[in-house]
């Protein structure tokens, strides 16, 4: 088994159980514990796992700000955004969640016309406010500086009666139970409210999100119609997403 295949299997095991022991991984993959430790060291260096005594666990996502996250995995986010843009039709109402991958999608919307864009994302609204053919509705509520977006109740955000043809969401992390989670209750609660407005829900999550987790559940991956991710997602996890009934688009 090649190193890349071993590490994909290790990631899948850690994701499935939330943790894995070195001795168990060595037995499962029929290699030495020394080899497994080398794999774990490399996966930790990549930020995909966290090393603990005797094995590995899923890393806790730090409360990283929007500006810092916008410089991470830029090319992957642009590929995901390009695939997402193909799902948008002229003359529709679109919900854009906050987040750097969603912002990458917003940057590609000028190729589409006659849209109503509903978003809590301050940066997204500023990006689109002067684009011809796009009407922007920035949601109300309290501004959360870390994500540069508004959060709040359905009433505070002005979501009562809103119906969107399609909605795009990011994820703070995706845990072993296929639950999407965020770092604060307010962000998670606001995302649930946004989801309720949409006829079609699309999750944009690069493969690193399956190797991290946050504290507050937003929804299950199964509640999305389509998931768009990159080709770094291990095959075991691809099959898991498909088993939930989601359309899976790999870029």
Can you tell me the residue ranges where pLDDT is under 50 for at least 5 consecutive residues? none
Give, in spatial order, the strands making up the sheet with the most strands.
6-5-4-9-12-14-15
Alpha plus pi helix count: 10
Tell me the structural class.
Answer: alpha/beta
Binned, the helix content reads: 25-40%
Mean pLDDT rating:
87
Shape: elongated
Summarize the structure.
With 251 residues, this protein is an alpha/beta fold. It is built from 10 helices and 15 strands. The strands form 4 sheets. A 7-stranded parallel sheet has the order 6-5-4-9-12-14-15, sandwiched between helices.
What does this entry look like structurally?
By secondary structure, this protein is of the alpha/beta class. About 35% of the residues lie in helices and about 20% in strands. It has ten helices and 15 strands. It has helices at about 5-15, 20-30, 35-45, 65-70, 75-85, 100-105, 120-130, 155, 185-195, 235-245, and strands at about 20, 50, 55, 95, 115-120, 135-140, 140-145, 150, 165-170, 175, 180, 200-205, 215-220, 225-230, 245-250. Strands 6-5-4-9-12-14-15 form a seven-stranded parallel beta sheet, with helices on both faces. Strands 1-3-2 form a three-stranded antiparallel beta sheet. The chain has a three-stranded antiparallel beta sheet with strand order 10-11-13. Helix 2 (about 20-30) crosses helix 3 (about 35-45) and helix 5 crosses helix 6. The radius of gyration is 19 Å and the shape is elongated. The two termini are about 25 Å apart.
Descriptive labels:
251 residues; alpha/beta; 3-stranded antiparallel sheet; 7-stranded parallel sheet
